[in-house]
Every structure is written in C-alpha cells, then in structure tokens.
Inverse folding.
C-alpha cells in the first residue's frame, strides 16, 4: 500500500522543498521505492535533484492537462530508488485551466497519482507557497501531510489559516487526510525568537510535532546548487543526520498508519 | 505625481514583506505621504504593522470585488504619514473571481489605485509568492518594481522566469513598468554561497542592483511580532540603518523617474 505524503505551507521560504527533497532521498536510501512529485511552478524540487526540467518532455503540467499519460512522467534521479515527476513554469497555465474545469478541478492530481502509485512505497509531493488550486490538488491527492514551520513570527502567524484549510478539505473531499507531523525548520537555538516560537508550537501541537528539529545550516542551502540531496552532498554533516532522523521518524509514524 | 512601487518575487521567503513594510515606513518617516497595499492573502504586511486585519471592515478584497469603494479601504498605521490597505485570507477568493472575470482580470488593482493615489507621494504594494493573477495585478498596477533576492541558490535560479514575466507584462499591458532595483537580502557575508550569489547578481545586473545590502539579522525578524517597522522597534540597530539607506536610494532613483 503506497503512502502518499504532501509537504505544504502557504508561507513562503519555510523549507518545503528542502524537506521534500531530503525526505524523499532519505526514504530511497533506506531502500523504499520513492516518487517525488514537484507541484511548484518554480520547479525547485526538480532542480534540487539536478533534473534539467527544460529537457524533460513531460512534466506534471502535461499529466494534469491530459496531453500525456501519467506513466510517461517519472524520470530517474541520481539517487537509487528515487524517481521524480518534474515541474516548471508551464505549471502556471494549469492554475487557470484547472479553475475553469469544474469536473477535474481539485482532484486532477489524485487522478494522476492513483494509476501510477502501486510500484512505489512512498510518493512525496512538494507544494507551492499558496492556498490556491495547485495546493488544493495536493491536499486532495495525498493522505498524509508534513507542515514545515520556520521558527519565526510570520510563519507562526499563518498556521491557523492553513490548518483551517486542511480541515475544510478533509470534511469536503478527502476524509482520510491526516497531519503526519509539524516540522520545525531553520531553527537557530541561539536566538530568543526561535526558542519562543518553538515553545509556542510545542504547547499548541504537542505530539504532532516531530522530535527531529532541522537547524539552520549553510551546508543545507549549498546542496541544491550541486543538484544533490544533503546525504550525498555532505554525508557526515549535522543536517544529514537530522534528515536521516526525520526519515526514521516518518517511517515509524507511517507504520502506525 | 504619485510613484507606485511593487515589491515582488515569486520565490517564497526572500524578504518581500520585510522590504515593503520597512521601505514604506522609511518613506513615511522622511515626510512622504505613503500608502502600503497588502496584496498577499497571508496578510503579513498588515500584521507586520500591527493592523488587526480581522477587525478591518474593508480589506483589499472588498475593493477588488467591488463591494466597497477604494476610498473606504486605507487605515492609519502607528507610523505618521503611513496608511495601509490590509489583506487577509478573503483575498484567496479574489484569485478565482478575477480569473473568471475577463473584463477586469489583470487591471483590477490598477483601477482601484488610480482614484485614490493622488493624496500620496508613494504607494508601495507587497505581492504574494507566485506569478498568478494577484501578482499579475501588481505588475499592471504599478510603474516601478523592487525585486528582493535572497543570497541563496533557489532564489537565484528562479530570477530569469520572473524577469521574463515582467517583460511580458511590459509589452502587453503596462509599457511604463520598470525595475527600480534588485535588492540583496538576508546576506550573511561569512558564507561562501552568499558571496558567490552576490557576485553572480552584480555580474548580471550591475547598476540595477541597489548599493544597499540587507544583512541577515535577528532584530529584523523580531520586529513584526511587535507590529513595528524596524526603525521604531530598534532605532539604533544595523538593520534600521540599512533600511534608511535603502529609503534614500529609492528616493534618489525616483528623482530621476
Ligand atoms: N535548515 C536550513 N538552513 C539553512 N538554509 C535553509 C534551511 N532549509 C532551507 N534553507 C534554504 O532556505 C531557502 C528556503 O528554503 P526552501 O526553498 O526549501 O523553502 P520553500 O518553503 O520550499 O520555499 P517556497 O515557499 O519558495 O517554495 C532555500 O534557499 C534553502 O536552501
Ligand atoms: N534580513 C533578514 N534577516 C533575518 N530575517 C529576516 C530578514 N528579512 C526577513 N527576515 C525574516 O525571514 C522571513 C521571510 O521574510 P518575509 O516574510 O519578509 O519574506 P517574503 O518574501 O515576504 O515571504 P512570502 O514569500 O511568504 O511572502 C520572515 O520571518 C522575516 O521576518
Ligand atoms: Mg519550495
Ligand atoms: Mg510576504
């Protein structure tokens, strides 16, 4: 039974892509057959794994608009057991097309993923920074959600709107949707603000917060420019250990699913 | 003649809101009558100035959807000479409504700003992290653009798509649209990656890059939780000086406009 995980937060720059890429690579390196789906027109998850998205004949856009079969989209990455469905700016056109197509609308991604999920143990989907139609498709197309939260004020402020939107989708369209966990990212333990935000999040969300915390680290922001996940870019650094710990925690939480 | 400036970048978390809020406050403190327009459903520019957006009767959504006159939207902020048109999650509905209204479409914001700009020296608009219909409205509603770029890989990678989109709007709809400047944000001079990105940006964009550089600083990320621009939160800190320098540079560049 394939487990489908969406990585989402409408706040920009909180570490969605960094989490999606390194978790997908972590699962693949643990021997799980994994598909990473890029649903962000910026295509950062694709380029973060060194995929030249302009050279790919079929991106997620072609599958969403029906001009190719979903089976033709996955491309192999440089990591064993990890495949990617890339995205690029073509995906912006899908926003308009999906909004005007009342039949497909929010379930377009779910309809793409169901025929192609079987060979994979995990499907990880990177969402864009918004609550628009592309993110709605992610919320309708997966059963588990990881919400990265940067330990700062604006990301904390916006969390209640995101949680309401998730509840709305769960009631209306996708009753199996659950929050697998809230992930604290870019944490700089030396700052008072980070400690205050972490305290606030643990108070409100308790066990739903992953024990693994991702600290701020330059190595993590360097890895994408080499097209590599952190485990292959710098196998011994602290960020690699943190993402391996996150991978194990995700596997443990999914065992219970 | 009112100068209208949009702060935009489809990459998330690069400092759009931080720049829009502190530039608007900087202009106001220099004695310029300034209107800050929040065009992001997250409403961070509104809350960053302590505006309780749920209590505002009219946000930018009501003006865009025509349920109130634009004159009824601006609210005074805690900074003299600075008014704000707030935004909140209601703005998400505008995305669908504008896409389905072929007449208004991309010029809805321009039609709101023209009748209300006269009393202001500057209008500063904070855009959301996307290239969708709300950002399209910002590009059609202003004449000058500031593009904050975080000194990291993903923000650098996405810049060419943004510049193409801006060129497209300039040719098709808004011939007066110009890039006032590219602003380097969250620069941590100690890291090699930041130095490499800064070098790359200066090589490609030369004079279009503001001389003022905004360094990474915790004080800047603390200010929004107090609802204050950095000049009022910590008047003597380095970030205050940097944003005052940015304000002076913007004024000098606008003199030539
Ligand atoms: N723990 C970390 N330490 C340092 N830098 C980080 C960390 N996590 C992510 N980054 C960097 O911060 C920036 C934002 O991260 P990322 O792009 O993953 O966020 P995002 O939420 O996917 O952004 P968007 O909203 O644009 O999709 C990137 O340049 C990334 O390399
Ligand atoms: N120079 C800086 N130093 C440290 N933190 C900063 C700096 N500039 C912005 N921040 C913080 O980084 C986060 C992202 O900044 P901000 O919200 O302004 O970006 P944005 O581009 O508006 O994001 P979005 O794409 O979600 O609209 C915020 O928590 C902000 O307080
Ligand atoms: Mg991303
Ligand atoms: Mg913002």
């Amino acid at each position: 039974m394939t487990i489908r995980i969406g990585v989402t937060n409408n706040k920009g720059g909180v570490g969605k892509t960094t989490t999606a890429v390194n978790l997908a690579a972590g699962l693949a390196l643990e021997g799980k057959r994994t598909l990473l789906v890029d649903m962000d027109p910026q295509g950062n998850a694709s380029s973060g794994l060194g995929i030249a998205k302009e050279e790919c004949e079929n991106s997620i856009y072609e599958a969403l608009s029906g001009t190719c079969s979903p089976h033709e989209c996955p491309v192999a990455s440089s990591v064993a057991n990890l495949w990617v469905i890339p995205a690029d700016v073509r995906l912006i056109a899908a926003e308009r097309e999906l909004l005007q197509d009342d039949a497909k609308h929010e379930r377009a991604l779910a309809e793409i993923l169901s025929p192609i999920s079987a060979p994979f143990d995990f499907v990880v989907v990177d969402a864009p920074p918004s609550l628009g139609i592309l993110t709605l498709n992610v919320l309708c197309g997966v059963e588990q959600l990881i919400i990265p939260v940067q330990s700062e004020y604006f990301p904390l402020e916006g969390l209640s709107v995101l949680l309401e939107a998730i509840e709305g989708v769960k009631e209306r369209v996708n009753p199996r949707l659950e929050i697998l966990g809230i992930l604290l990212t870019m944490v700089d333990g030396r700052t008072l603000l980070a400690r205050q935000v972490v305290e606030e999040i643990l108070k409100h969300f308790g066990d739903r917060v992953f024990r693994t915390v991702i600290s701020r680290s330059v190595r993590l922001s360097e890895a994408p420019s080499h097209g590599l996940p952190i485990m292959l870019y710098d196998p011994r650094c602290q960020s690699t250990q943190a993402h391996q710990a996150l991978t194990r925690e995700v596997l443990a939480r999914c065992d219970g699913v």
Observations:
- The interface with chain B takes residues 10-14, 17, 41-42, 44, 47-48, 89, 92, 95-96, 99-100, 128-132, 150, 152-154, 157-158, 161, 188, 191-193, 218, 221-222, 224-225 of chain A (CB under 8 Å).
- The longest helix of chain A spans residues 238-255.
- Chain A has twelve helices and seven strands.
